[in-house]
């Protein structure tokens, strides 16, 4: 088995950063009215800027695969070209289409010859699953290098046009139709962007990061769906897919919009996350105090203090000074967030040999978690 190192990191964020007061200009108003939930959500998540693959005139500038292709090309230079890539593993929660797969579409844009591809599905953990597949391929000596990515292009799922048919339908039922909060909530949470890592079996580059281990946990056997798209949740918790609805209901119920069961999120996301983290640390005999940099993907700063308290109550406290996040500047990019955090940390110039970096990614879709430990080589 080979050692595996992250030897290059890259990101791509489309267009200029979008401030809170211009979000609705870019995404559009629903039924000609400003969202009542927007200010509440933004006050809690404390995100100041984010990026959309939509320009100031409302034109779409990139799809998801194009964002990802740009991030991958950011890894390349005269000493490592896109034609040197042996495996391409791409995770996302917002693919451009159901088929072909996301990685296939990225590969199509790259035009870099015949390579193996892998497309983990899911939400935030899909980016970590892409990393794990690449990690295992290099570690088992299947390939000498692999590129993995995490990306989202959620903005097109959140534009007002997606919800207009539903609101118009609601007008026939009630006088003042309001979009349900579980749909409106995520319009002010999610962002676009892509990140990429190059994995190799030798510690090349200026700041190679050795991947020590990766762990994953799912609680789908205990908890019903919390964040979902392409279906609707019935009162008994069953998730009914879009394919079982008549096509005229797809737009009337905004079945393809991303929805969030906020109550279920608050009840489970932290407790299960800390349970997973504690299990991973105990499995590998690692003390929380030994972590130099803790990179937690959280969707909102609303959860930050409570996450710290939950960790402290479970004897895995990591001091505030060791936390590293960039949510307020780049927004919640789902599967790409952990890539963007690590890219910024690596390029900050503050890492030194021997530093231990803990990556922690939750996914509220049906509560799964991915955790990894890196060491600066």
From TrEMBL:
Coiled coil: none annotated. GO terms for biological process: secondary metabolite biosynthetic process. Pfam families: ACP_syn_III_C (PF08541), ketoacyl-synt (PF00109). Residues 119-202 form the Beta-ketoacyl synthase-like N-terminal domain. Residues 281-360 form the Beta-ketoacyl-[acyl-carrier-protein] synthase III C-terminal domain. GO terms for molecular function: acyltransferase activity. Keywords: Acyltransferase, Transferase. It comes from the Bacteria. The keyword Acyltransferase applies. InterPro entries: ACP_syn_III_C, Ketoacyl_synth_N, Thiolase-like. This is Beta-ketoacyl-ACP synthase III. It comes from Seonamhaeicola marinus.
